[in-house]
Write a structure and sequence with these properties.
9 strands; globular
Amino acid sequence: MALPPPRISILDRANARDGFPAADALNLVLERAQRAEEWGYHRFWVAEHHAVPGIAGSVPAVLMAAVAARTHSIRVGSGGIMLPNHQPLVVAEQAATLEALHPARIDLGVGRSVGFTPAVRSALRAGKQDAERFEDQLAQLLAYLSGAGPITARPRNDAVTPVFVLATGSGIDIAARAGLAVVLGGPAVFRTDQNGTLPALDRYRSQFRPSRWFERPFILVSANVAVAPTRQAARELLLPEALALARSKTTGEFAALAPVGPTEWAGLTLREKEAVERSLSTSLYGTPSELRTQVQHLLATSGANELLITGGAFDVAAQAESDRLLAGLFPQDERRSMDDRRGFAASQ
């Protein structure tokens, strides 16, 4: 009996593009979400980044509301809202309000990161030490959403909105103890042990405690993805973001995406080229047939329930074609049973 196709979802960071206004980046997020829904993607998530020149999206709840209003069935979520930057009650109220407006369509992904620079952390009144309070903040958030706290977030949510934890630092252990889904992304997804498995995810499964949100462990793995007619074309699609990330390590600033053609590549330093290659080594890219193999291998290695694709491209049309090609590799059957969670919210 053939296995059902894996679920594929999108996390769009609302990348800014050199020479274009921020409004363009935000409108492109909405357009991409509409296409993702049409092509059968399961979720469409947005992220939180403050005072980053290369990112136009800083307020996930606002962008989620816009995405949900422009779509009809795709799940919409945050990947994620950084709890150290916010009061848990306010985050609970935002999620509860979105859930009331768009029933059974909202996901709440949360993380423990703080601002990238001292100036941003000062503006947010959240220092590095606040990340250590994440587990307590998460417990408060869950209490407000479930109605188990001293006060209840309104509109009343009753724990119907699934909560996901971004596995940065101790996040994976916190997710297991709280009985929540976990999102593992970046280089960590590719750090297998001698048995070809991911020890962090094995630990998550063994430590998982069932909760009102999830009866069983639930894992999303996240990776930069690009699909194109040739492997070289797919690689070129990922280059602008990989270079922006490489330069941010030395400049402290993630810049707007800019084209990286042969001339630009030739002008990079050896250190920049090596950083770009390291980034690409933990990405999935190539022709459709190559991507099918890479995705299947990653999901088999991780045992994940779902792939959350990331990666911003300067070439908007090529990125749209990449999304279309990937969706075509794993067509979704709307009739198949979704049993990843007790109840319905995470699976609809």
